[in-house]
Q: What sequence folds into this?
């Protein structure tokens, strides 16, 4: 879940029709070890691969926020060049051709990491980046943007969703091929 205000990045006015999912999520009160999300449940979910054409160095998740922009963690892309980053939208099971609708992969034109981001052992509140895609995304039932909050919206004490292909267990290096989701409490970032 990524509820954030991006003061150093341009506003994205095309927030109409955002946040619409193909499926209704049901609450799971677990932090690690989410469940299969269901195809199209998170149409804004991006699968981000970082590496050369010969090898993948790492992978991260992100959220589609407009027809040309994806927000992700700064630490994922801070040391990468745009040519090393590829964004896949509409994927559910990684490397599977047997899905109801196809996934689409995009090159990245620019990487804008928050100017205050630093690699630190502890969590960094500026760990955010915006990727500008090389071409326009055509919205479909399984590919659509997430809504960005208004500047003064308060989500503290509410629950949001986290989705991705990250570890199912703490410390595990194993990653699922199927998109996972879990609901999590929204915390204060101060």
A:
């Amino acid at each position: 879940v990524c509820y954030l205000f991006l003061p150093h990045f341009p506003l994205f006015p095309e927030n109409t029709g955002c946040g619409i999912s193909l499926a209704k999520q049901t609450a799971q009160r677990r932090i690690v070890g989410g469940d299969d999300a269901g195809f199209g449940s998170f149409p804004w979910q991006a699968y981000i691969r970082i590496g050369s054409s010969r090898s993948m160095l790492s992978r991260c998740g992100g959220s589609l926020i407009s027809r040309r922009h994806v927000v992700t963690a700064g630490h994922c892309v801070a040391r990468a060049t745009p040519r090393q980053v590829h964004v896949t939208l509409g994927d559910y099971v990684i490397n599977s051709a047997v899905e109801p609708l196809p996934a689409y992969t995009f090159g990245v034109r620019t990487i804008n990491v928050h100017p205050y981001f630093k690699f630190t052992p502890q969590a960094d509140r500026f760990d955010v980046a915006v990727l500008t895609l090389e071409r326009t995304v055509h919205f479909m039932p399984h590919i659509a943007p997430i809504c960005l909050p208004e500047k003064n919206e308060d989500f503290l004490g509410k629950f949001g969703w986290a989705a991705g292909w990250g570890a199912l267990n703490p410390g595990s290096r194993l990653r699922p091929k199927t998109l996972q989701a879990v609901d999590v409490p929204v915390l204060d970032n101060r």
